[in-house]
Amino acid sequence: MFFKPGDTFLLKRTPQQDDFYHLMNGKFCGEAWDAVSRYVYTALQGGSIMKGWTNDDRMMITCCNDGTRPVIFKIERIDIPENDEEREWLAKQNFGNTAEDAYTG
């Protein structure tokens, strides 16, 4: 078994450490990474992972495409302000969604 229930992976993307392009130094299955990487990339760029689809634009639930050993992932964007201006901006944001915000096609 590659993953265990409750495993947590904190990805960083800095000039010194780029976990995204190195599949976390081999800690991630290639197929699972292929299934979740687009969402992880969006989160690392500060984007809305699933705008209007979840209760919080910074979070989503997804799974790998292995039909015999599927793994479910909860992806969360953690915003860490680097200065007072960012801290103030984050405090004013509302990342929540309601049923009225939901995309209905």
Rg, rounded, reads 15 Å
**Estimated share of beta-strand residues:** 5-15%
Query: Structural class of the helix and strand makeup?
Result: alpha+beta
Poorly predicted spans: none
How many separate domains?
A: 1
The largest sheet is:
2 strands, antiparallel
Principal-axis shape: flat
Note the total helix count. 3
- Spatial arrangement of strands, main beta sheet: 1-2
- How far is the N terminus from the C terminus? 38 Å
Work out the helicity level: 25-40%
Rounded average pLDDT: 78
What sequence of helices (H) and strands (E) makes up the elements?
HHEEH
Total strand segments: 2
Brief summary of the model shown:
The protein is α+β, with helices and mostly antiparallel strands and 105 residues long. The chain contains three helices and two strands; from the N terminus they run ααββα. It has one domain (20-95).
